[in-house]
Amino acid sequence: FMSSISYKGILFDFDGVLAESMEENFKAWQAATSEYELTIKREDYFPLEGMPVKDVVVNLFQCYGQSVPDIGKVASLKDEFFLNLHQFKLYPGVTKLIDTLVENQIPIGIVTAGQKTRILETVPGTVLGKFNTLVTGDMTKQGKPFPDPYLMGSASLGIAPEQSIVVENSPLGIQAAKAAKAYCI
Fold first, then answer.
1. To pair with 26 at 20 to 30 A between CA atoms, which of 4, 18, 127, 160?
2. C-alpha span between 72 and 75 (Å, rounded)
C-alpha cells in the first residue's frame, strides 16, 4: 500500500524510545509513592507511561483506592528520586540514527511527558542540540493521549502533523500520535 503523503520530519518520544530510562522512572515513582505508604506495581505504572506527571500521580493513588495527596509535592519527589538514580543512557543505535537524520537534514524533535527541567538537567546538551524541537509535558494544556504534544511538535518543525512520523512506546503516546493524524511507529 503506497501512500501519496511525503513525510518531512520525525518526532520521538523520549523515555523508553531514545533513553533507556523506564526502570529508573518506575523506581523513582515507587520511592515517591512509598513516602505516602503506597506500594506500586510495575503493571500498574507502565500503562500510565507518557501521561503528564500530575495525571500519573492521580491515577496511581486512585488505582490503589487512596486519596490523592499534594500532587505537586509527589511529582517533585519523583523528579528528585529520578535525578538521584539517573544514569543517562541512550539505547544502542540511537546516536547513529540521530546523526544520520541530522546529516540528511531531516527535521527531528523530542515529544516527551517529562518536565522541561528534568530533561534539561539529565540529557546532555550535545544530544539535545541535535534536535530541532523539544516539547515537554509542561508545555501543552493537555498531554498524551491527547494530540496536543504531537500537534505542537509538528508545528514547531514547520510541518503538518500528517507529514510527521512518530516513534512511540506507550499506549497513551500511540493514541496521541494517531489523534494528531501522524504516522506512528
1. 127
2. 5
* Of 121, 119, 123, nearest in space to 135 by CA: 119
∠ Cα 60 64 70 (to 5°): 50
Spatial distance between the Cα atoms of 103 and 105, rounded to a whole number of angstroms: 5
Strand partners, 110: 12, 134
Instruction: Report CA-CA distances (Å) from 163 to 22, 56, 139, 169.
Output: 28, 30, 22, 20
**E strands in the chain:** 9-12, 108-111, 133-135, 164-167, 183-184
What confidence tens digit (pLDDT) does each residue in 22-68 have?
999 999 999 999 999 999 999 999 999 888 889 999 999 999 999 99
CA atoms within 13 A on the CB side of 68: 12
How many residues can be counted in the chain? 185
Work out the burial of residue 168: count CB atoms within 10 Å of its CB; fewer than 13 is exposed, 13-18 middle, 19 or more buried.
buried
Nearest-angstrom CA–CA distance, 169 and 175: 11
